Amino acid sequence: MGGFTIFPHLPIEIRLRIWLFSVPDDEAEICLPWPGSVPNSLYAYTNPLYTLPCQPLTVDVVFPVAMHVCRESRSVVQDSQRSGVFFRASQAAGCPTPFRHFRPELDVLYLGDQGIFFMDMFVWPENSVFDSARPYDRGQQSQWRKFLETLKLTRRFAVATTNIPGNCRMIKEFFTRVWTFNDPPRPLRFEFCYVVPTTKNITEMDPDNVHAAFVPPGRRCRLANIRESDWGGILVPTNSMRSNPPQTLKKLVTQTIVEIRAVQEGRGLGARRKVDGPEIMDIVDVTAGTFLEYQHDGSWTEVCATRMYSSEKMYIPEPLLAERPDPEVQRVHDADIELRLVPWDEGNDTDYSDDE
C-alpha cells in the first residue's frame, strides 16, 4: 500500500466508498443487560419497569481501523447514517465509543447473578409484576413484551455457573418455550454457556475474597471459551470458601445437565406435561467461558477474580428509573467499572436478599 500513491487523487466518491468497505461486518459480541440487579428489583412493586434492563439492548464494538488513518477516513466512519457505526458518550473512555444494537441471532446474552430470573419472567409471565400491575399501563406492558420478544429470538445464552443448580427446571422450561413460541422454521440449535468468574486456582486466593457472586467487567469485554478438556481442573466457588468447598466446573456441568434431562424425561417432582418437539437438551450446545476485559494496551485480561462478593453481606445498588441513562446516548456500563457494592442494612425491616 505504501506505493499506492494514486489514492489521494481518486475522485472523492471513490475514496469514500473505499473507506466504507474498510468498516468490518458485525461480529458476535456479549450483551450485558443493565442494571445487573434486575429483574429481582427491590422496587418492583413500586414500578414494574424496575424489573427490566435499559432498552434497547446494546453491545460494545471495536473501533474501525479507518478511525485511525486520517481525518477523511475518520469523518466517514463517524457519519453513522453512511457507515452504520454508531457512537455514544463514555465518561470512562473520555471520548465517544462505538456500539450497535443487540442482534439476538448473533450475539450472546448474559444472564448474571440476578439476570437468570429473566428466564422465569419468560416461562411464567402470569407471575410477573407486569401481569399483576394495576392500573394497566400500556407503556409498561409494551416495554415488557418488547423484552420478552428479544428473549424469544435469542439463540445464545450465557449464565453464571453458580446460579444454575436449583434452577434446572426453569432452564429446561425456558428453552422449551423459546423453541415452541418461535414461528416455523423453529431454531435448530441453542448455545448455553456456563460462565465462571476466573480460571485461576481459587484455592491460592484469600478465602475471604472468594464468593459465588461476581460482577462482570465494566469495560468492553468478551467471553473466552474454556475447552471441555480443561473443565475438570477449574474450580467454581459455590459459596463462602470457609463454609463450602468449591466444585469443579466439570462436576457442576455434569450434575446440572443430568438434572435438566431428568426434568425433561418427567422424572422430577411436579414435572410438566411433555410438549411436542425435540428433546430440548439435544439441540442445546453446552459450552463454558470466562470474561476477558479489554485493557488500554490492547490486551484482554481476566478481571472477575477481583470482582467476587458475598451476596449475603453486600448488594449492588440500583439506580432510580429517572437516573438510568439512555443506552444509545451514554454507555451505561461505565457505572460498573468500579465496584459499587453496599453492605446490607441490618437495620432495614424489609426482608430482602440477593437470593430472593
From TrEMBL:
<protein>
    <recommendedName>
        <fullName>2EXR domain-containing protein</fullName>
    </recommendedName>
</protein>
<dbReference type="Pfam" id="PF20150">
    <property type="entry name" value="2EXR"/>
</dbReference>
<feature type="domain" description="2EXR">
    <location>
        <begin position="4"/>
        <end position="109"/>
    </location>
</feature>
<dbReference type="InterPro" id="IPR045518">
    <property type="entry name" value="2EXR"/>
</dbReference>
